[in-house]
Write a structure and sequence with these properties.
Helix content is about 65%, strand content about 0%. The chain is mainly alpha-helical. The chain starts with about 25 loop residues before the first helix and ends in a 15-residue tail after the last helix. The C terminus is likely disordered.
């Protein structure tokens, strides 16, 4: 049984086990975005009173911005051979990294809970005899995703490629037909119909949604050979995530412009059926399958994060059994939340996007600045797993930079429950991300002024001697 399942989790992937091709990254991230939750993001601007033209522009700009940061994390996987979140220890400390892992768990569990709710709505739209809040449908949907996550890395890559090709066909047919077969009210294409608050809400909603992938990314590149270039891994990830995300969000934008009073699932079926009767169900089924795919990624990431937390309390050795146990915990948590919150999906999803944006922004800035500017990709694999090692239990520099970035954003926060004073002065526009990124990055760089990289490289080389039998020791974990 365990031979069928991936046994590695948060541990280092040796060079002898590296495999795959760098282009395999684009289907993972295209398919990761090609689903109903992404469609729901594209509805935000229309729901707030924006028109189709400016909402579409905001979607594209938001995806361009958020995906830029997310794709840079992908390049870390081949270099370090580690999943994404365990890499936070050098920036925050062996114990201090629990802060960002807690944030990651909010993301994984929260998104899967909302995916399960949305899946229930889609199943009800397809088969009205099944209630949208059916516990059985919501639970069974999650079980499909759980099984694929349990099998692990290689089969997830394979499933994502197959699904990506399927959705490209479905989305291409819809897009071509829509270009010639859909008509909208004149105001939907009016250049003078620009409204600042809906535009910024949509732009930042799209950006935060794409940015939220940052905590997953190197999970799916860590088995690639270490000689994979930064440029290659960046662009294959960027193109897959940007095209998949923007395409699906624009489906939501179009559907909302046509039927603003309908729920997301009903709106996209309505839009597709206007092109060809019955095609709405095809599009909805494809998007529903996509929810299974992305829920698999969420369960897989939640498993790695829970194991990272457990490793902080007591160092553990990776095994398929431990992965299965952590997956079961994630499944129970997301399903419980889904069953409890299914009646308020829309408002809660909007708030979740906002909260994730605020929580991910400082971490993204710190993690990328540390990797590319401060340490320039040089880390000790063994010391990352050493509670009394060179990275310490608490890294005050990373924690201080995170706090500074987060606090700087507070006056710009916008949620359904509360708006910061500057956000209110801007008419409710949310630009917090544009504040948090430079503040967190700047404070982190200031805290590391005078840092002796050569001395740390030498120490890392000694610590990692013999990590790869038969090859020279390397400060990059080689």
């Amino acid at each position: 049984m365990t031979q069928l399942l991936e046994s590695r989790s948060i541990d280092y992937v040796p060079l002898a086990e590296r495999h795959g091709k760098v282009w395999h990254l684009w289907p993972v991230w295209f398919a990761g975005d090609a689903h109903l939750a992404t469609v729901a993001v594209g509805v935000l601007g229309i729901a707030l009173g924006g028109n189709l033209l400016w909402t579409a522009v905001a979607v594209l700009l938001g995806c361009l911005l958020g995906t830029f940061f997310m794709a840079f994390h992908s390049t870390q996987g081949p270099q370090l051979g580690l999943p994404q979140m365990i890499q936070s220890r050098p920036q925050f400390g062996y114990t201090g990294a629990l802060l960002v892992w807690g944030v990651a768990m909010v993301s994984y569990i929260g998104y899967n809970a909302f995916n399960q709710v949305l899946a229930g709505q889609a199943i009800h739209q397809l088969w009205p005899s099944i209630a949208a809040t059916s516990p059985g449908a919501i639970t069974l949907f999650a079980l499909f995703a759980l099984v694929l996550a349990a099998i692990g890395y290689d089969k997830i890559h394979l499933a994502q490629r197959a699904f990506a090709y399927l959705m490209i066909v479905i989305l291409t047919v819809f897009t071509v037909w829509a270009a010639f077969g859909l008509t909208f009210a004149p105001g939907q294409w009016d250049v003078s119909g620009f409204r600042g608050v809906p535009f910024l809400a949509q732009l930042m909603g799209a950006a935060s949604y794409q940015l939220s992938w940052s905590i997953y990314v190197s999970d799916y590149s860590r088995y690639l050979p270490r000689d994979v270039g930064v440029r290659e891994s960046f662009w294959w990830t960027y193109l897959g995530a940007f095209i998949g995300g923007a395409w699906m969000m624009l489906i939501g934008t179009v559907a909302a412009a046509l039927a603003p009073k309908l729920e997301v699932c009903a709106a996209i079926e309505f839009a597709a059926d206007r092109l060809y009767p019955g095609f709405g169900k095809v599009l909805l089924i494809g998007a529903l399958l996509g929810l299974i795919a992305v829920s698999t990624l969420n369960f897989y990431g939640a498993s790695l994060t829970l194991l990272s937390m457990a490793d902080t309390v007591k160092p553990l050795k990776s095994s398929a059994g431990k992965r299965l146990l952590s997956l079961a915990v994630a499944f129970i948590a997301s399903t419980a939340i889904a069953l409890a919150s299914s009646s308020s999906f829309g408002a809660r999803f909007n708030d979740l996007l906002s909260i994730l944006l605020y929580l991910f922004t400082p971490w993204t800035a710190i993690n990328l600045v540390d990797f590319y500017v401060v340490r320039k990709g040089h880390y000790s694999i063994r010391e990352i797993f050493n509670p009394d090692g060179m990275y310490g239990r608490w890294n005050w520099r990373g924690l201080m930079a995170y706090a500074a970035g987060f606090i700087a954003m507070i006056p710009f926060f916008v949620t359904d429950e509360w708006k910061g004073p500057i956000a209110r002065a801007l008419g409710g526009a949310d630009i917090a991300m544009l504040i948090g990124l430079p503040v967190a990055a700047g404070v982190y760089l200031w805290a590391y002024r005078g840092f002796d990289l050569r001395a740390e490289e030498a120490r890392a080389a000694v610590a990692d001697a013999g990590l790869e039998p038969g090859t020279p020791a390397s400060a990059r974990g080689g």
